[in-house]
Design a protein that fits this description.
By secondary structure, the protein is an all-alpha fold. About 70% of the residues lie in helices and about 0% in strands.
Length: about 270
Amino acid sequence: MFLYVRLLILAILTLFTISCSDSDDPVREETKGWTVQKLYAEASTELANHNYTRSTKLYRVLESTYPYGVYAQQGLLDLAYAYYQDDKPELALPTVDQFITTYPTNVNMDYALYLKGYINYKNDNGLMSRFSGQDLSERDPRSVLEAYKAFTTLVSNYPNSKYTPDAKDKINRLINALSRGEIYRSRYYMSIKAYLAAISRAQNVITNYPNTSYVEEALAIQVVAYDKLGQKTLSTNTQKVLALNFPKSKYLTRPWKYSNMAWYAFWQSER
């Protein structure tokens, strides 16, 4: 669904750009009669010189004037990068999605996937501070998941890509962040005595992120939550699983207790 929203945003932008008359668009007027090679070269030069606003305008003219061929394909990918550099991830993401959808066999697909993952990865980190009044348990970390999916596809489909090593590193960071986020939510639900929800969130950690360091606390939370629900057998059995997998766990000598964690804290160790 979010892919369609991104593509819709891009389509609206494109239609708006095309609808502008030449007299209202100095760049379009200036580039009248330019060849596709000259348009692409000029846009690339502006991008290299960090003139992102002008470069995006040139790439959009290229896209609307010469919508087919290798220059159009590479120009679309460069446009996504230019938007990102111009601090416009809301335009960069639908643009790179359009590239991935339209040109699935392009030789630069590994870079496109990396760019999509990287923008989502950085976008979520950067936007965290804007939600300081919102409890993380109320948020769905879509950007984190989108980054994870893009990087995972890159690693799976292009194991020899030069972008794969960094993608692997970021996947590990994202997995830790997602796991810690689930633990935060589980803690939150324990604090409001929503024990079934806490058990479910903890189980997400155990099932989806079994190799992270947060499995221990997830099991400890379940031990207490089951006990609070009067499910003594489940609590005892989970305690046995905890002891088997974490024989030195502190939760074997004293039960898990709620301790507050700031909503943004789980990112601090992942940056």
